[in-house]
Amino acid sequence: MQGKITLRTAGIIAGAAAVFAFLFGIIITVSLPAIANRSEASIEQTTHIPLVTEKGESPFVAVAQVVSPAVVNISAEKRVSRGVPGFDWYYEGPFEDLFRDFFRGFPRFEGKTQTLGSGSIISEDGYIVTNHHVVSGASNIVITLVSKKEYKGEAVKLIGADPRTDIALLKIESKEKLPFLKFGDSDKVKVGDWAIAVGNPFHLEGTVTVGVISAKGRANIPLPEGPDFQSFLQTDAAINPGNSGGPLLNIRGEVIGINTAITSPSGGNVGIGFAIPANLASTVINELRSTGKVTRGYLGVYLQDITEDLKEGLNLPSLDGVLISEVVKDTPADRAGLKSGDVVREFDGKKVKDMQSFRIQVASTPVGRKVKMTIFRDGKEKELNVTMGELPEELSAVTPEREEESELGLTVIDVADPRAQRFDLNVISGVVVVAVKRDSPAEQAGIAVGDVIISIGKQEVKNLTDYNRAISKLEKDKSVILQLQRGERKRYVAVSP
């Protein structure tokens, strides 16, 4: 009958469809790996950096050629003072006091020394970034370009410096446009990325070394020059004395860090170098360029990283955030209602990772800005608004109130201050010495940087307030006994104001 399909015809059609589906499946299955391989090959071609270019050169050749003309040599003259020319009597050991007393009466040698560092030209009109410790206290700064052209005297100006990040900004007066480097985004840098250091180690100008980014966010590194705001990029690209202030670059020739320090038992490179991240450096540079100084946000809290023990003891849900151990009275934190024991989880819309990064985050926040904070208190999350204050000058300069009045020649901070962590102290109270003025009563008494003052006379010193109270009571020309702790040992010293 017309329009109807017989059972036999239907069977033939179904069979043909099954055969077609089977053959189509085979074709697709065979084709998929080829399609996947082509896709992978395409991705690989777009991201792969050849070890050798079409010219037979490594990819670092192009970076070195473009970057090197914008890297400068910096030499700075500084005055120094020491006990005996050519002989350094610093000694630690069982006869330390004997050595100190024996050489204390020797006449001091006054002289000059030259520091050597590197820098990066960051604008065609001659702005140069380097480390603060390269030019700190210098009386004569000389900038030498790769072309051997020198700038010195009035042709070199120190625009500003920030010891807390170890950044300094210089300016050279030049009638010609200069080659300069561009900054990359250091937040996007990953562990394992290429890292290229260019600088002048050991007077060897234009040295290029290559490695990788070994780690990010390194903090609490005990460096003699600081800085105390630390979130270093770590690299195994060879960095040696003289590299300080020079650029650490990515494979595209962008500055991702400012080389600052090494950790080494010998003083030479052992594959552990540190660089200030470009994003942190850029913020400081912009402020120095516009105002000549850095203004920082301030909360008024003491902080602790959260450990497993603290997590369990405080019944916290995770290790995320930072713990507020103390709130300073009459500060932005106090006025906002923050309390000791609060855990800061978010600040200004960003997750809080650890104490060091949070300190940098707070310091980088504009003064007067209202910021929303998410805290964890009594088992619940809570939101608070805080209006940022300005970091007080005495905290920024790490200078105690009574230093000039006491005439001891000491600069101290609380052992609870995060800046004291670089001394690896094993005490929970007192004040730690961070500077000793040359030829001061403190130096003559043998007090050294890193010593912890735990009592003055009969006054116990638990913090900076106790210290200032005791210092204010000192009588001129009358000796006072200070009790110190140095390492595992306690000792008494007599100081005459």
What does this structure look like?
The chain is an alpha+beta fold. The chain is 24% helix and 32% strand. It has twelve helices and 27 strands. The strands form five sheets. A seven-stranded antiparallel sheet has the order 5-4-1-2-3-7-6. Strand 11 (247-249) and strand 12 (255-262) form a beta hairpin. The longest helix has 41 residues, at 7-47.
Number of strands: 27
With strands numbered from the N-terminus, the spatial order across the biggest sheet is 5-4-1-2-3-7-6
Mean pLDDT: 80
CA(first)-CA(last) distance: 125 Å
Annotated CATH topology of the largest domain: Thrombin, subunit H
User: How would you describe the shape?
Assistant: globular
Task: Provide the β-strand percentage band.
Answer: 25-35%
Can you give the helix content as a percent range? Answer: 10-25%
For the largest beta-sheet, the strand count, sense and barrel status come to: 7 strands, antiparallel
Discrete helix count: 12
Structural class of the helices, strands and pairings?
Answer: alpha+beta
Radius of gyration, taken over Cα atoms and rounded to an integer in Å? 30 Å
CATH architecture of the largest domain, by name, is: Beta Barrel
Specify the oligomeric state. single chain
- The number of domains: 3
CATH hierarchy class name of the largest domain: Mainly Beta
Low-confidence stretches: 26-47, 82-106, 396-405
